[in-house]
Write a structure and sequence with these properties.
The protein is of the alpha+beta class. The chain has helices spanning 50-61, 69-76, 87-99, and strands spanning 24-27, 30-33, 38-41, 44-46, 67-68, 108-111, 115-118. It is found in: Cytoplasm.
Length: 121
């Protein structure tokens, strides 16, 4: 026999659609270089603060998945701000202003009473 019995080649090629090649993310028309901390929408590079970048990275890694407020607070700030906090909404507002091209589809959607999701509608 072959000795391993699996029949699978060890050097299986990575699928070309792999979303995290060398720290590069792409979702909803955005591209992100996690290591260089740079983001583009189409050909336009976005100028983001550290928190905005972290928030967008989290949304991009979970593109199409609704993230609730508690999860986002925990991942970005390391603790829960509590239900009365407007902090997250403020940052989402900043991000939306920087992301959204005039006339282009919004990318960050509010799911009322739950949280936010990144997707192209």
């Amino acid at each position: 026999g072959t000795g391993n019995g699996t029949g699978f080649a060890v050097e299986a090629p990575k699928p070309s659609g792999d979303r995290d090649v060398g720290g590069l993310l792409s979702a909803a028309g955005l591209r992100m270089d996690v290591h260089a901390r740079r983001v583009w929408r189409g050909a336009r590079e976005l100028e983001l603060t550290r928190t905005e970048f972290d928030l967008l990275e989290l949304l991009m890694r979970n593109a199409g998945i609704v993230l609730d407020h508690a999860t986002i607070y925990d991942r970005i700030w390391g603790y829960d701000f509590g239900p009365g906090s407007k902090n997250l909404a403020v940052y989402v507002g900043y991000l939306r202003r920087k992301l959204d091209d005039p006339g282009a589809a919004a990318l960050i959607h509010t799911v009322r009473g739950v949280g936010y999701v990144l997707r192209e509608d």
